[in-house]
Amino acid sequence: MISLNCDVPNKIFVACSGGVDSMVALDFFRNGKKDVTAVYFDHGTPHGANAKSFVESYCDKLQIPLLIKKISREKKKSESPEEFWRNERIGYLNSLPGPVVTGHHLDDAVEWWIFSSLNGLSKLIPSQSKNVIRPFLTTPKKELLSWAKRKNVPFIKDPTNDNVRYARNRIRHKVLPEVLKINPGIHTVVKKKLKSTL
Questions:
Q1: Residue range 138-149: average pLDDT?
Q2: How far is CA 127 from the centre of its chain?
Q3: Whole-structure pTM value
Q4: What pLDDT, in 10s, does the model give residues 53-111?
Q5: Mind listing the domains of the chain with CATH numbers?
Q6: What separation in angstroms does the CA of 115 have from each of 2, 74, 181, 196?
Q7: Which terminus of the chain has fewer Cβ atoms in its 10 Å neighbourhood, N or C?
Q8: Half-sphere exposure of 185 toward its Cβ, with a 13 Å CA cutoff?
């Protein structure tokens, strides 16, 4: 079951990439009678054009207002691709004139906690930072997948999510399965830590 870890205002922007997490967030709050505007950020990747068309078509069909922004600068040599995309996306979301909901969930929080721990300081994804709110942080991804299946929510998959060249994907596909062998309750551990900060 999807449960929210924070209050969500009536009028919101929903960051929508076309993936299952964001499409469920859009569907969940639209059906919850929120005043929703979808927001798509085009990272300029090969997948970006397909995802943009998918989100545009979905929003047009359901008459959901949609804002689109394309990445506007070159990557610095000192930035990893992930860091570059994240910084540009967050910068745009922070510029919007109202609260922005993202589809981050418990599995994302676990992956970030592992990644940050491996880099010297374990960190939790905050429930809110500036105008960005993450109401699904204590909800496992399987619940979002279940919602998508039950409600027939369409979504597309980004093929780069399987590319273990990127650190986040390497943690998801290589490291996390090993962590679960050592501590099958890692999601419960991180969930408790998240709840202690709310």
A1: 97
A2: 12
A3: 0.91
A4: 999 999 999 999 999 998 877 777 777 767 777 888 898 999 999 999 999 999 999 99
A5: 11-197 (3.40.50.620)
A6: 25, 26, 17, 20
A7: N
A8: 4
> Amino acid letter at 130?
K
pLDDT at position 157? 92
Sign for the CA dihedral angle at 45, 41, 79, 101 comes to: negative
Question: pLDDT at position 162, please?
Answer: 80
Q: Is the pLDDT of residue 178 over 80?
A: yes
Give the strand pairing for 35-42 and 11-15: parallel
Q: Per the structure block, which two tokens stand in for 126?
A: 């905050």
The first and second tokens of residue 2, run together, are 């999807």
Between the alpha carbon of residue 177 and those of residues 7, 17, 143, 171, 173, the distances in Å are: 33, 26, 19, 9, 7
> Taking Cα atoms as reference points, which of 78, 84, 103 lies closest to residue 20?
103
